[in-house]
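Exercise 7. Given the components listed, write out the predicted structure of the assembled complex. Treat all entries as one system.
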Amino acid sequence: KNQVEQSPQSLIILEGKNCTLQCNYTVSPFSNLRWYKQDTGRGPVSLTIMTFSENTKSNGRYTATLDADTKQSSLHITASQLSDSASYICVVSAQSGAGSYQLTFGKGTKLSVIP
Amino acid sequence: DAGITQSPRHKVTETGTPVTLRCHQTENHRYMYWYRQDPGHGLRLIHYSYGVKDTDKGEVSDGYSVSRSKTEDFLLTLESATSSQTSVYFCAARDLGNTIYFGEGSWLTVV
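Answer.
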């Protein structure tokens, strides 16, 4: 069964500090891995998407890494801001047919940035 | 922004009544999805569509049906709402680059 595990479940950090969120997965056959940010009461918004051959991808202060051998990904947030307070969701895609994909969602890490 | 709008955004309904949630997109995406999000669970797929009149079940499809008569609209219907269907429902659409865009959610409470 495809699974995505995220850690920690929740995290509180001081504004201006860096943090790293983890995602471990057992999904096959792997197609890509995505990180989403979900503000409270809003829909998820895409931060990054990485394929098998990509080790790292950045989007502003967000940097995602992927180790396809160990089936691990991390999302690093640099110089956190209050607006970074949100849930961060790791989503792994498995190809299930021509043009068809099965997405497995992690439960998310809830990040709180405090002044 | 894939121009996805959901309606209604909030609804309270009684057990046993039918409910329809609407998802509208403006970018002509072929693939559309309905998910539910509950505490302690990741987003779970209810149904998806890969074209007009082409739909298929997801992992939690019992008690739900969908219809897609036009590319831009994807409807989710709860035939007879139950308290276990109290949830936040998200519609999504996938572009050709495989980016998935989500709507803002529909909060449904079944009392």
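Discussion: The radius of gyration of chain B is 13 Å. DSSP finds no helices and eleven strands in chain B.
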